[in-house]
Design a protein that fits this description.
The complex is a heterodimer of chains A (about 290) and B (about 230).
Chain A: H1 3-33, H2 40-56, H3 61-84, H4 92-113, E1 130-132, E2 135-137, H5 139-161, H6 163-173, H7 175-180, H8 185-211, H9 217-232, H10 237-257, H11 263-277
Antiparallel strand pairs in A: 1-2
Chain B: E1 2-11, E2 14-24, E3 29-34, H1 40-48, E4 55-60, E5 63-64, H2 70-76, E6 78-81, H3 93-100, H4 106-119, H5 121-125, H6 136-148, E7 154-158, H7 166-181, E8 185-189, H8 193-199, E9 202-207, E10 210-216, H9 217-221, H10 224-230
Parallel strand pairs in B: 3-8, 3-9, 6-7, 7-8
Antiparallel strand pairs in B: 1-2, 1-4, 4-5, 9-10
The structure holds adenosine-5'-triphosphate (ATP) and magnesium ion.
Magnesium ion binds next to helix 1 of chain B.
Chain lengths: ~290, ~230
């Protein structure tokens, strides 16, 4: 393997891990409520921007990051309570439009509270590159990969091993039966939004030292996460991870070997290809209805 | 134990229940029969609180529960095994059962799980299989087992024998009898009116959202109207 290839692979993995986190957020909300939450990218923005803001105010990372994640989770809860829940029973299209409206609102709010500048977050562990087989890796990339891996494992444990996680799966599978089992489906929905928001925020914080952050960073990252979720199969956790990684690597490779002009088109192409040839995605359940 | 007074429910603006009065005493097995679309499932959903009440009152052990949330009713012991089984298809048999005991303490749920497996040994053998892969009869056992996991004091059974082969229907009814013998209070809806009436202490006949007849199971079995309309005699 050439050093260049390894370099692209490492960069792709890093970007892909971020996409995967955003895609997981899409899938968790979709599973719990059948809603495709197009405000997912704004959680990414809130995570990055809030951390920058807290850090600028002198709050150390160890406190700024949990605060920013909590702020995003609170926004997620509010989104569920004030935008999605009142429209319960509305058509899927209506719900999608509501989330798009919410994302525009949140971006506007961000320009009021913060500004329209680009911000950069100081890397967590310096910026001395690590040399790996001729390729270089930023310490922040290790943070991205390590934290993403830990989150994926934690989610697998939560949904696979805990009763609350299974109650979430049960609610998405059969709301009526879940209610009859004594599961509070409202709480499950709220939890799904808070969890997704937290995941998005973590993605936004992890990537901010590498890729800058600003009030509108969520637009593109939200779109990429959405494409990754579709690619892997909307609603599938493993699919979100695979979709994110595949998309990240495909983007970086095409930017490296072909031209970076087409980088953002890859997501679109991948999404279209999946919708045409493999409607339930790489790892999605076959035969479920799609939006 | 359960008292229903003037209960009315609507789907949108269409009335489905038009003033139901009935009661179920502690330890009783009460059956509800009625044609398709009479409102039996609607009544059970209202009793479980998953469908809002339009008018009337539901009391459980003297307390007004008309506006109580579904999970609060489950906690009181009002547990429903819904029509069409409604198992969580992608989840394993054991996860389905554990979710039935969602509101109970872990140790209690563990003991309840053993009792359900003792009652339906076939479920133990399939504990790690996705519930969706079970046969219809096994899914019904799972649905009942999931209900039992919640420690029902009043068990609402909606069409437990629907779509099952005669031998399995007999098995399900045997299970209902043994639950009754264990002093579980049961409110049973079944399209197999003969069996549902034969097993019942008392029964109600529902027609287009109204109770039109009530009596002991034995009396209704020999009632001419019932024989003609529901027993095909
Ligand atoms: N979700 C719903 N929305 C609108 N109308 C409904 C709904 N569910 C039931 N209905 C109507 O309410 C009436 C009562 O239905 P319900 O399901 O309670 O009847 P049932 O006695 O359980 O019938 P079955 O024997 O078919 O189970 C029917 O006319 C039915 O068409
Ligand atoms: Mg019914």
């Amino acid at each position: 393997m050439s050093a260049q290839f390894v370099q692209f692979l490492l960069t792709g993995l890093t970007v892909g891990a971020i996409y995967a986190l955003v895609a997981l957020g899409f899938s968790i909300i979709y599973n719990a409520s059948q809603v495709i939450n197009f405000a997912q990218g704004e959680f990414v923005m809130i995570g990055g921007m809030a951390t920058v803001w807290f850090a600028a105010a002198g709050v150390p990372y160890a406190a700024a990051i949990p605060l920013a994640v909590a702020a995003a989770a609170a926004v997620g809860l509010a989104l569920e309570k004030f935008a999605v829940e009142p429209a319960r029973g509305a058509s899927v299209v209506t719900l999608i439009i509501i989330t798009i409206g919410a994302s525009i609102f949140l971006r506007g709010l961000a320009t009021l509270i913060w500004d329209k500048q680009l911000h950069v977050l100081k890397p967590f562990s310096g910026d001395t590159p690590i040399v790996l087989g001729g390729a270089t890796l930023l310490p922040q990339s290790l943070w991205v990969l390590g934290v993403s891996l830990a989150i994926v494992l934690a989610l697998a444990w939560f949904f696979g091993r805990t009763l609350l996680g299974k109650a979430m799966l049960a609610t998405s599978n059969n709301r009526l039966a879940a209610q009859l089992a004594g599961i509070r489906v409202r709480h499950v929905l709220a939890l799904a939004f808070a969890l997704s928001a937290a995941l998005g925020a973590i993605a936004g914080i992890l990537i901010a030292p590498i890729a800058f952050t600003s009030y509108d960073v969520g637009v593109m990252l939200g779109l990429k996460g959405f494409a990754a979720a579709i690619l892997g199969g909307m609603g599938s956790g493993a699919g979100a991870v695979v979709g994110g990684i595949v998309l990240g690597i495909a983007e970086t490779m095409s930017a490296g070997y072909i031209s970076s002009a087409y980088k953002d088109a890859i997501a679109l192409l991948a999404m279209l290809a999946v919708l045409f040839f493999l409607p339930s995605g790489l790892l999605g359940r076959r035969g479920t209805e799609r939006v | 134990m359960l008292e229903v007074e003037g209960l009315a429910c609507r789907y949108g603006r269409i009335p489905a229940l038009k003033g139901i009065d009935l009661r179920v005493a502690q330890g009783e097995l009460v059956s509800l029969v009625g044609a398709n679309g009479a409102g039996k499932t609607t009544l059970l959903r209202a009793l479980s609180g998953v469908l809002p009440t339009w008018a009337g009152q539901v009391r459980f052990e003297g307390a007004d529960i008309t506006a109580l949330a579904p999970e609060r009713r489950v906690r009181l012991g009002i547990v429903q095994v819904p029509e069409g089984r409604q198992v969580f298809g992608p989840l394993t048999v054991e996860d389905n059962l554990r979710l039935g005991g969602y509101l109970r303490r872990r140790a209690e749920a563990g003991r309840a799980l053993e009792r359900v497996y003792a009652m339906f040994p076939v479920l133990r053998g399939k504990r790690s299989e996705p519930a969706g892969t079970l046969s219809g009869g096994q899914q019904q056992m799972l649905a009942i087992g999931r209900g039992l996991m919640a420690a029902p004091r009043l068990l609402l059974l909606d069409e437990p024998s629907m779509g099952l082969a005669p031998r399995l229907v007999e098995e399900i009814f045997a299970c209902v009898r043994s639950l009754k013998a264990e002093a579980t209070t049961i409110f049973l809806v079944d399209q197999n009116a003969r069996a549902a009436l034969a097993i019942a202490d008392r029964a109600y006949v529902l027609e287009t959202g109204r109770v039109v007849l009530e009596g002991s199971g034995h009396d209704l079995l020999s009632n001419d109207q019932v024989r003609e309309a529901y027993l095909g005699l």
